[in-house]
């Protein structure tokens, strides 16, 4: 095979990394080099763009160490049997690229994943060496996210956590049966065992930091995971319950969802078409409801239809409200925070503003118009000082009044 230069490797391995969605950089500890010491920062404005909870855009160099792999997972474009162009970085090349890109103000951090070469331990050693060299040899203080390998020696994963801000392990598929069928070389037990070890190390690190000022940190931005949506027969209800269980058992910062994308020379066991991207979007919305709106997994799953799939034309919160008309309307001047969070169209910030404002005056529709994005969406579900939706509440079919108008499909200029 012809030798590739770094630029050619970057073209191949940056493109190969695009299937990994779990690269947000929120939650890390604040570090900077404004005092003239060290290099890099986890702060400020920022070839992958991730967004922190406060809206800051953080640019990450997102690459694979290599797209070669000894595993043959059916859904993976980098699987052993896939006919794709292969490339591999050395640890030094990744370090030099990261430093070079940072100095040009292209990036503020690194997201590094990899296929498995030689063995899980060997691959993990190379990834840890990248993070170690950045931190110790170059005093790099920017963000580092390492995608770890569940089969690797726990000591290597522990070393990764000492140098990286966030580490993650993909659960790959929502169900054990799907993983066994599409990725027979991977084991749910090994994946969850590694995630349990990471959880314990994170908790131990936080406890040590409370006791000793000089205690080493372990993955201060926590751990995350990713599930592929649409490669197996798992329903949205299955995925919602799986995600809820992962949050509860492993104290994850995020569960990411990646819509399955058909790949060249695909296995016959895979679907021929990718699922609608809107399905991935609805799952992220359902995830948001569990994390920030106090919905239980069974409540979110109740928004699904008889087949277990969330509706694509309306969001899960509105779908749940339409199925639970007896819970509405909600009086914005009296209802507790938990009830207001269930109103379609009211976000967490709007609810907080309502709770503050109603201490000083009885809220009217004009007040709510200033506090919310869409007054028309919330009107059927609320009672205000000058508003009671008698006619709307009595309608047998409310969905046409509150569902968004479907946008026409964009036609292709060169379609046959």
UniProtKB/TrEMBL annotation:
Lineage: Bacteria, Pseudomonadati, Pseudomonadota, Alphaproteobacteria, Sphingomonadales
Tree of life domain: Bacteria
A UniProt-annotated Pfam family: Radical_SAM
Cofactor: [4Fe-4S] cluster
InterPro entries listed in its UniProt record: Aldolase_TIM, DNA_rSAM_put, Elp3/MiaA/NifB-like_rSAM, Endo/Exo/Phosphatase_dom_1, rSAM, rSAM_sf, RuvA_2-like
Keywords annotated in UniProt: Iron, Iron-sulfur, Metal-binding, S-adenosyl-L-methionine
All residue ranges annotated as the Elp3/MiaA/NifB-like radical SAM core domain in the record: 59-286
Official protein name in the record: DNA modification/repair radical SAM protein
NCBIfam families for this protein: rSAM_link_UDG
